Automatic annotation (TrEMBL):
Motif Important for interaction with partner proteins location, chain numbering: 144-149
Gene Ontology cellular component terms for the protein in this record: nucleoid
GO molecular function: single-stranded DNA binding
Protein name: Single-stranded DNA-binding protein
UniProt region (Disordered), positions on chain: 102-149
Species for this entry: Rossellomorea vietnamensis
Keywords for this protein: DNA damage, DNA recombination, DNA repair, DNA replication, DNA-binding
Biological processes per GO annotation: DNA recombination; DNA repair; DNA replication
Length: 149
């Protein structure tokens, strides 16, 4: 049998990190995934998918993703049920992520949340974080003697 899910969407709120009684980290978050078609009013609708990730990836998600972050999730569908606070049985369907990909640079997700009312000032970036292999359009100054072949 095959149970595989691949999603790309934006987090609807900050991930919630918890630890099991044995100390295993687990993060829960909701991913808003746009549908490929529009409704009768010409608007795009979204599905809101509950996601769960375990262990070290859970801590990474909690540390680096936040509301509005673009993420890719690869995992499986899982259903579970439990007794709610009102004593009624609650059924839940969620994606248990095997991997979560961060699909935008940290600075872009900071800018996006800044547009949502975040009043925290951003620190200026230094050149130490600059990608040395990025193509900035400038010629590279390397002599043939420096090449290993």
């Amino acid at each position: 049998m095959l149970n595989r899910v691949v999603l790309v969407g934006r987090l609807t709120k900050d991930p919630e990190l918890k630890y099991t009684p044995n100390g295993v980290p687990v993060a829960n978050f909701v991913l808003a995934v746009n549908r490929n078609f529009t409704n009768q009013q010409g608007e795009r609708e979204a599905d809101f998918i509950n996601c769960q990730v375990w262990r070290k990836p859970a801590e990474n998600v909690a540390n680096f993703l936040k509301k509005g972050s673009l993420a890719g999730v690869d995992g499986r569908i899982q259903t579970r049920n439990f007794e709610g606070q009102d004593g009624k049985r609650v059924f839940m369907t969620e994606v248990v992520a095997e991997s979560v990909q961060f699909l935008e640079p940290k600075s872009q997700s900071n800018n996006q949340s800044g547009n949502q009312g975040n009043t925290q000032q951003q620190k200026p970036q230094n050149d130490d974080n600059r990608d040395p292999f990025a193509n900035d359009g400038q010629p590279i100054d390397i002599s043939d003697d420096d090449l290993p072949f």
